[in-house]
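Proteins fold reproducibly. Take a tokenised chain:

. . .
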Amino acid sequence: MIYLDSAATSLIKPVSVERAVLQTIRTAASPGRGAHLPAQRAAETVYACREAAAKLFGVSDPSCVVFTMNATHGLNLAIRSLVREGTRVLVSGWEHNAVMRPLYAAKAEIRVVSGPLFDPDRFLEEWESALPWAEAAVCTHVSNVFGYILPIGEIAALCRQRGVPLIIDASQSAGILPVDFESLGAAYIAMPGHKGLLGPQGTGLLLCAEQGIPLLYGGSGSESRLRTMPETLPDRLEAGTHNVCGIAGLLAGIRYILSRGTDAIFEFEHIRLIEALYILQDSCAEVFTKGGENQSGVLSLRVPGLDAEELAMRLSERGVCVRAGLHCAPLAHESAGTLDTGTLRLSFSPFLQENAIKTALFILLEEIEKAEGN
């Protein structure tokens, strides 16, 4: 099997992640729920993960690192904290449904800034022009469909200058690109644990510059006499029992990234991208990429006259795992002009070797040729 769907979930992970999860299942209980050794082990694991995440993402206070179930959970927390009915919210044209559906549910006024695909200068011009209208902003760092790296540093600077609180969706950049919370000055940055951070499913992080409004209410392991959630982070936003086993795995994933470095990981995945582009250059596939610096290890394409989901199924039958369709991001497809067809997406990991990408791409070309011959 060749796995090319890491933008959805990282499948191949460091061995240390698996070991950490298994060890924690056997030895740890719940943090803040006892003074006994298993509870202490859990508390130490949770705090160690906060510290590691704070180090990776430039957060000066680890208590501002909040654990979530996934990026969607974190984005809902952030949007609930900033957006009310009628709030004017500026978004990029590359947002995932994890952003758009909470905004629609909150009955926000939404303005979309797109700009052409892989044209960050044009995007910044349109963003700056629209920003005076906004009361809040949400922007993805990297498009999950096209791997388009948006100029998040410049976007954040413009928001700071205008005093517009910014929520960043780092789902496709955390663990792959540098993300510095203090430098960006965002109100919130949300990310999953199971993608670039190489942790288990059911984990995520929300980096918080403000206390936020809870999405869930319940036990926090602290200030139990209160009838409300605690006022301080992280307890204010972490009701209920932590996913300690998942957090242990996430800690191992973050430590791996800290040891290898995001620059090295990005370079490795970008090399895989260039190899794929070279193999596809003479094919009939329409490839949505320029392969430049503002392109991550995600490649979308479509083949005239061939349904993307049918092609993905054929590849699956031959052991190549990709994703096809709209990728939960219809707004991104609308911006790129692919809403009617969707795309076939290949997304790479820091463990994907050259021979694997070559084999997968040659299988893809064979399936395209078969379809053309029918």
Q: What stands out?
A: The chain is about 40% helix and 15% strand. The longest strand covers residues 88-92. The radius of gyration is 21 Å. The mean pLDDT is 95.
